Amino acid sequence: MENQSTSDGMWQVQLQNKFSLLSSAEASPSVQSRSDPEQSKSIKGSVIKNNESDSAKSIRVASLNINRGLIKKENELKYTIQENNIDIIGVSEVDLMDFDEKKPFKIEGFNTFFPLKRPGSNKKRLLCFVKDNLDITQRSDLMSNTISSVWLELKTKSQKILICTIYREWDNLDGKGPLDTAQHIENIHTLQSQIEIANKEGLVIVIGDMNIDLKKWELPKINKTAEEYQLLIGECGLELLDFGLTWSRIIESVLKESAIDHALINKPEAVKDHFKVKFHKSDHDLICVEMKINVQKIHRNSTTSRDYRKVRSNPQFLLRRLNKINWNALDNMTLNDMVIFWTKEINICLDECAPWKTKRFKKKKYVLSEEIQELMQIRNKLHNELQKSIKNGTKNNLLEIQYKKHNNYCNKMIRKEVKKKNGENITSDSNMKDIWKCIKIVQNPEATSIRKLKIEIDGKKIEDPQKLANEFGNFFVEKVRKLDAGITSTNIDPLSLLKEKMKSTNITFTIKTVHVSVVNKILKELKTKTSYGHDGITSEVLKLGADVLKVPLTYIVNTSIRESEYPSYWKIAKMIALFKKGNRWEIKNYRPVSLLCVAGMVLERVIAIQMEEYFETNNLLGPFQFGFRKYKSTISELLTLFDSLLEGKENRKEMMIILYDLSAAFDTVSHDILLKKLEAYGFDESALKWMKSYLQDRMQYVQVAEKKSEIKVTNIGTPQGSRLSPILFLCLMADMDLWTKDSKISNFADDTQSIIIKDNVEDAIETTKVESRKMMDFFSSNNFVNNANKAALIYNSKGKGGEISIDVGGETLSSTYSEKLLGLHINADLKWDTHIKEVSSELKKRMGILRRIKQKVPEDKLIIIADAIFNSIIRYGIAVYLVPTYEKEDLKARKLSSETYDLQVLQNKMLRLVHGLRISNRVNMLELRKKIKMMSVNQMSIYHTIMEVFNIIHNKSSEQISNKYSHHGRHSLRKNTNNFIRVPELHEHRNCTGFTYCGAKIFNSLPIKTRETQDRNVFKTLVKKWIWDEVPSY
Question: Whose CA is closest to 70, among 40, 50, 97?
């Protein structure tokens, strides 16, 4: 059924009006405002207010030659900018090689502008940083790629201001030596033509390192470049602001000084002040011009959110207030009125305990400790005394040594403090999300800042929040409608085979009411998040208030179950548009994130638990299904898949693997087919009625900032973010294996593969055609869209990769050598060279990240980060793609596979990088890894192989491999005297490279007490100890 607007039915309008009066969270103006959906802040339930502004009576424009490299001087630059309240600064001699214009170097709170790209070079020597509260644009029409300059336009109420930050270079960027006089003069003429154009538009200021010494200005013989520069100043009607001597360097015990940093302005009356500031990490001073300009400044966004500090520090405060609510009033209400009462009363309570507060996003101050600031003052004093002694001709060598030592110590302490601050939030318990957040902040502070949402439709740019909300609301609904309309109808009954299977069973599923302890357990297990759905209530509030809320919520849950009805208000989803990748202006590059009412998700979880138990206990889910099931994972599926493929390879069979691709599978689920399948699985009338109520007439709207689109009603698909959607999708796919006879099916969520294994190629081709047709019939009859363009075929002929083309579902499908499946690159010859190559490439990128953040993070924290972002790449799927070396003789002889060796070389390089070791530094890697408790690649391979075997033995994560490990079909897997598992018999062609064989051998080599351990955590600890004791770290 197509989606339709709420305007299509009067009842929907009434429902929307009723819900709008629900709670203070949705009714009050302050709470109706919500956050910018593109930002992480928005998902945490904040209210973003954009473009608040006020005016400033002056701005400061500065220039600094930072002297050969920005990266190592970044911290002091930030501090200097902050201390002098600089609005715009041009920084020259930044010397950034391979500059990425799409992801330029950033300073928090500033936008980055840069010169035009020069042919054949990505090097940048000048960057311009502008405070992000200034409404400023780059004037590329005034710029030339022959000069390192940036022209900017700043509009004020009364005039236009054109600002040029410039670095007049001596040398070519191509490294071919200095520019000749003719080139210098030509560049001066180019600059003059730019200034002449700018002069006609408004106030002009040019500032930067001109490399022309004003100290020699009056000498009778000046060079031709300086002459042209003087002419430029006169002909353009500019006034030169004199900062005095701005460059100094001690050369052979002689102080050399010059005045080569200048500022030019066409309206000197606009200058309020100009001054220079000593920058101790350069031989240039920073020069600054303060201009009397009434500039409209845009404030950073503000946020309105609840203040939970009091509730978090004293949960009893919240509980006492929740206890005052008259929960007995629920007795005489309908289900929907119960939910309205629940929502309204909790929000009134929160208005008292956690009132709404508006805060502006303040730019983080770059604060150095008092100790560091005192050291800097002493350093500055020593520097000034040294300069005076040199000028007086009585240079104090002892003072110079003292200054240098103190300056080095000062720089060292600054670096140490910056590292300490950056590593504060990283611990060994930090999850991957927190670690990547830290990396982004260290690498690029602007990555975590608020970015205004904007798109382009039919050539028109849209930034208005209301228009954006409407566009996204229509786009997300229309996208699913088009997919549904494009599904080819079929006369094939999707239930015929399932009904036949279920004839012999006599089982019934009834949704049972639950005890308050069940709801309490679900509430206590909620993840503490500050995001919320349409009701404005977060999971954190429900978790903190569980001791009181568990009783009324249980009453609502059981009423829903008894009446076979799902509350209408909890069907409303608040959608947030999140950018994926690509062009931010294109609407197709955004995906919806659904925020549901958390209390409704608790009810969903109650039903899901009962459904999971019913389907698992009665073996209604297939052994080929690995997604959304306890103890099963992508690795379980890959191990099972490769067990079949390696067995076929060893028996010299012809093998075909078809990888199917379904488009938006969850969004196109047919409610009618799903309900009929649930009925076939034994759902009674009341359970089906509840499911129908849950699925039909779901509502959604998109929110951008404080604006919302109209509510749309949808009657297709399973709700995104719902706790029931995964198990419902599993139910829909569970009978897939009934449609095939001569192929093995492997499925994880909407990723499905068919494996055909035959003795000869003719049978393999014919079987592939038949089996693929059956799979297509299954997909189409179940209302799924099979994306034929993304389907893939892999062909293995008697252990070797081959090429073949087959008609699959009316489309010619040609085999490929390598395809990516569940994160691993699978080759047709079942070798792993492509995957190792891809992993190696990614590991090198991760080393680049570590190299960039190394100077800003303490070494102990860097090791944690390295393990998280580097070793995690190796760890994923390692039990599948690596053959561990485990035999004692092989370990002694260091017989590692080539794949293991290649990855180990990269890990060794990573360790050298983290510890600051050069290739010339001789170091015992075994001892180093042992010291920091970081396993080698081979150790990781053994560890994860053992853990997967444990999972198979105790939890049957792979029934296929579990059966091979069993001694006899009727006996338990572990019923033998020594707790050994059965090692599969060797085939005459077997090379002992498969997980099934190696896993059994390694597991059986463990001490008997370890093998007998049932507790997973205890087992993990014992296995790690055994590996460090018995397996060398190489």
Answer: 97
